[in-house]
Amino acid sequence: MKHLSNSLIKSFIVLLALFCSTSTLQATEVQLRQNGIVYFIWYETDNHGNITVTNCYVGGHDPELSGNIIIPSNVTYEEKQGSRGKKFTVTADVREIGNGVFSNCKGLTGITIPPTIQRIGDSFTGCTNLKSISLPSSVTQIGSDIFLNCTSLETATMSNVEAIPTNAFYNCTSLKHFTIPESVSTIGVYAFCNCTGLESVTIGEHVTEISSCAFMKCSSLTEVSIPSSVELIDYGAFFECFNLETINSYSPTPPECRDFDAKILEKATLHVPVGADKIYSKTYPWKNFKHIIADLQP
Q1: What is the pLDDT of residues 159-204, one digit of tens each?
Q2: For residue 76, which of 63, 60, 87 has the smallest C-alpha distance?
Q3: Which one of 19, 70, 99, 119 has the lowest number of neighbouring Cβ atoms within 10 Å?
Q4: Which three-class secondary structure state does DSSP give residue 1?
Q5: CA angle at residue 137 from 226 to 171, to 5 degrees?
Q6: What does the CA dihedral 223, 228, 233, 239 come to, rounded to 10 degrees?
Q7: 15 pLDDT exceeds 90?
Q8: Is the pTM of this model over 0.70?
Q9: Is residue 149 left, alpha or beta, with left meaning phi > 0 and alpha meaning psi from -120 to 50?
Q10: Residue 19 to residue 73: CA distance in whole angstroms
Q11: Is there a contact between 100 and 144 (Cβ–Cβ < 8 Å)?
């Protein structure tokens, strides 16, 4: 009986020690303003006072913000606590640029994005004076409409995003050249629609889908090369690209394609891999091209 009581006491002590050592986390959000930009920091505090930052993102800006701006890699929040004015400090890497943060910021002409940023939402919609932007390789996700109606955007580079989403560059009429990186698998609906100044586009070797109306009304586009990785070209992907003269399709097997404009079928020359002309000539809508030449090396 005494042995049983000792065992119970020991078990109770172990459980009590585990309970006392268990941390209770308290989540807190703070904001700070630096050089006209508002940052939000989320952090957790355990019952020992240890702080863990869970997120930090750009969440707003002053109305008069203009020119070329720089997003820092990290920001520091400070405040005095208690009657003795003890300083409380949290430093956090900036990881995101939130949805709509710089939307319709007409004065914005350029922005430097640090290599800590991982995600950018639909952040630059309607920035009509933004001329160029470069996304670091840390950025893997960008939001739909991210550069919608950025009519002065001339250059945009990115290297590691997973997809070019819906309306990403819709109506970017000053964009002349664009390279879709190898990391991209999907070109979204209306992604480059009405990019009337777009003269050339390089499609990455890992793209599998070109969605509906992706390049609709790209009236300056004269040549496009479709890598062998592409499995689907959806409805109207190149609708009203009436100046297309050359289409290079590198797959020995014709990718599934919904349609091409009658004017493109009449005017453009379709180049396919050596020996693939017969199968293209039997597959809709590829068979409707007036000019098919088998001269590509797959």
Answers
A1: 999 999 999 999 999 999 999 999 999 999 999 999 999 999 999 9
A2: 87
A3: 19
A4: coil
A5: 55
A6: 0
A7: no
A8: yes
A9: left
A10: 38
A11: no
